[in-house]
Amino acid sequence: DSDLSMRTLSTPSPALIFPPNSPGFQNGRGSSTSSSSVTGETVAMVHSPPPTRLTHPLIRLASKHQKEQANIDRLPDHSMVQIFSFLPTNQLCRCARVCRRWYNLAWDPRLWRTIRLTGETINVDRALKVLTRRLCQDTPNVCLMLETVIVSGCRRLTDRGLYTIAQCCPELRRLEVSGCYNISNEAVFDVVSLCPNLEHLDVSGCSKVTCISLTREASIKLSPLHGKQISIRYLDMTDCFVLEDEGLHTIAAHCTQLTHLYLRRCVRITDEGLRYLMIYCTSIKELSVSDCRFVSDFGMREIAKLESRLRYLSIAHCGRITDVGIRYIAKYCSKLRYLNARGCEGITDHGVEYLAKNCTKLKSLDIGKCPLVSDTGLEFLALNCFNLKRLSLKSCESITGQGLQIVAANCFDLQMLNVQDCDVSVDALRFVKRHCKRCIIEHTNPAFF
User: Fold this and answer.
1) Where is this region: Disordered (predicted)?
2) Which residues are registered as beta bridge partners of 416?
3) Which of 74-88, 332-346, 405-419 has the lowest mean pLDDT?
4) Cys bridge to 342: 41, 123, 368, 383, which one at CB 3.0-4.6 A?
């Protein structure tokens, strides 16, 4: 009853956002499993400020000794805000219900730079509308402090929710909507057009998103100043199955500042799409085209144009890539630190040799399920890549214990070794453990533990 008396039309009850039978709403009180954040996270629960004086009969019976224990009220506001910044989301919202002073402090804009909503049953569109309206009280119609919105896995998110973000959050820098498959290109276009500072965009699993571009109105308006460019540097389009070469061409032409691009399982991408990408996006440091089955050695020739800027490359399960493609990467991308070539069955010891001799600063390598790689390839790695920390050889049929011993004797900093489903002896595993004391070995040999 006391909660009902506090509700107003301008501050809806939590039940409008969390259904009563959902995990986020129990016994009329909000609960959340979100982790804490120094900058604060926003939960979809908004309450009106509690009354200054509590008049419940049981509260009036509190002893004088109990009242004297509230020493926290003596702290200045800036100290309270600092304490609140370490609280998890649900606790911060509960603090807003203690008293009027705590309500004002808990809604300090500095604590609400991030909105984080998770869960399949949450009415995300309504939640975003309520939260942005509350955060816009001091600055009508805009949330100047809000920089991050994370609504991953919220399947009820629609274009309406993204429109709310686009219209109210001009200072947005990071948006993650992974797994929200109901959003379309139009809503994404609005966000990138109305949020000029957006640098991080995650639309992985959004199967309806086929490209990233400015709206026509924004393109006409901003072209004299921005040249139709978008400031996104990090873009994750994993599992955007409908993305094609033409869409990748549009993305490349608008997002020329990209440094991190992930196209995992974008199965319609071909070498032609990578050619478009390399024409416009010359600053890419991390690129993943794993499980893009149409990418071949010609695509590797295009990627090699990134030269020393490329540090991370994933081509896992790209069955058309052979030693020829690896040779392009090894010749031009000498500062490569991470390579995932798992499942590229066309790679042999010759490809590993090119890689080891030219990319000597390699720290992580996955050549699992490459049956043509043998101990000879491992010897080239051991004699050239002394900084190797992670090595996966899972299901490499030609690897033996002798090759592992050569690696262990030269790569003392090895921290992870995966030899699952490899025919290696217990003595070889013990040799690795003896020489690489910090190495975690993943294996399937029941005799070694």
Assistant:
1) 1-38
2) 390, 440
3) 74-88
4) 368
Structure tokens at 6: 């506090």
| Residues 123/126/127/128 CA torsion (nearest 10 deg) | 120
List, in sequence order, every residue forming a beta bridge with 25; answer none if it has no partner.
30
- CB environment 42-73: b (16+ within 10 A), e (fewer): bbbbbbbbbeeeeeeeeeeeeeeeeeeeeeee
H helices present in 154-296, as ranges: 159-168, 185-194, 216-226, 245-254, 271-280
pTM passes above 0.85: no
Measure the CA angle with vertex 196, ends 283 and 89; round to 5°: 100
Q: How far is CA 333 from CA 9, 221, 274, 420, 433, in A?
A: 60, 39, 16, 29, 32
Residue 364's DSSP bridge partners are 338, 390
Looking at CATH, the fold of the domain delimited by 322-448 is given as 3.80.10
Instruction: Spell out a b/e string for 168-205, using b for 16 or more CB atoms within 10 Å of the CB, else e.
Output: bbbebbbbbbbbbbbbebebbbbbbbbbbebbbbbbbb
Report the SS3 class of residue 312: strand
pLDDT digits (tens, 9 = 90+) for 12-45: 334 334 444 444 433 333 433 343 344 444 444 5
**Per-residue burial over 253-269, b = 16 or more CB atoms within 10 Å of its CB, e = otherwise:** bbbbebbbbbbbbbbbb
**DSSP structural state of residue 442:** E
Q: Could you tell me if 136 and 168 are in contact, meaning their C-beta atoms sit under 8 angstroms apart?
A: yes
- CATH architecture observed for domain 74-111: Up-down Bundle (1.20)
Q: What count of other Cβ atoms lies within 10 Å of the Cβ of residue 299?
A: 27
